[in-house]
Design goal:
Largest sheet: 4 strands, antiparallel
Helix content: 25-40%
Number of helices: 7
Shape: rod-shaped
C-alpha cells in the first residue's frame, strides 16, 4: 500500500494505476497469471517470491493452486479494504433459502447491519434444524408455582368423591392437577 500511495496523484488514483497495470497484462478474461501478478508488483518496487505470489492469488480466489488471479476483486480489496469490498458484494434480503444465499451478506428486516454466515457454515445443518426432531419429550413432573406475580384466582382445590386432596393450577402454559396423597400429576 505504501508503494501505491507513492504513485497516487490528484489526476490518477492508486486504484487506477493498479487497475491499469493489471489490465495491460489481462487477455480479456479478467484474470492474470501468478507470474504476471508477480511482475506487476515488481513494477511498483514490491518483490514477491513465486510462493508468495501464488499464495496471494489463491487467497483472492485464484484456484486451489494459485495459478491465476481475478484481479478486479483484488484491486478493490487492496485499496478499499476487505470489509468495504464485501459490502458491495451480493446481498440476500431475508432468510437465506439456497446454498448461494449463505455466501452473501444477509440482511434481516429491522436489523441495522448485515451479517455473514460463518466461513465453515454447513447448509445441511440449517436444513436439519428446520425439520422435526426424531426424539420426543415426555413431561414427568412440573416443579414450581408463581404465586407472587400470578395473583389471579388460579389455584383450586377439587372436591367430591375420590378427588379429595387434589389441587388444580397452572404453571407457564401447562395445566396441572396435583394429587397430594400419591404425589402425582396430570398435565393438560
Amino acid at each position: 500500500r505504501e508503494e501505491l500511495k507513492a504513485v497516487h496523484s490528484a489526476a490518477r488514483s492508486a486504484k487506477v494505476h493498479l487497475g491499469d497495470a493489471f489490465t495491460e497484462r489481462d487477455d480479456g478474461g479478467g484474470e492474470v497469471s501468478a507470474f504476471d501478478f508477480q511482475e506487476i508488483w515488481s513494477s511498483f518496487n514490491v518483490d514477491l517470491t513465486d510462493n508468495e505470489a501464488k499464495a496471494m492469488c489463491r487467497f483472492h480466489g485464484g484456484g486451489k493452486d494459485g495459478e491465476f488471479l481475478p484481479y478486479k476483486n483484488f484491486v478493490d480489496r487492496m485499496l478499499r479494504g476487505a470489509a468495504r469490498a464485501l459490502a458491495d458484494g451480493p446481498v440476500c434480503k431475508g432468510y437465506p433459502v439456497t446454498n448461494a444465499d449463505f455466501r452473501k451478506k444477509i440482511i434481516y428486516p429491522k436489523c441495522r447491519k448485515g451479517v455473514y454466515a460463518p466461513s465453515d457454515f454447513d447448509i445441511a445443518l440449517a436444513d436439519r434444524s428446520t425439520m422435526e426432531p426424531d426424539a420426543e419429550l415426555q413431561l414427568e413432573f412440573v416443579y414450581g408455582y408463581d404465586g407472587v406475580t400470578a395473583n389471579a384466582p388460579n389455584l383450586f382445590f377439587t372436591g367430591g368423591e375420590g378427588s379429595a386432596g387434589q389441587v388444580a393450577y397452572y404453571s407457564a402454559a401447562v395445566g396441572i392437577v396435583y394429587d397430594r396423597r400419591n404425589d402425582t400429576q396430570r398435565h393438560y
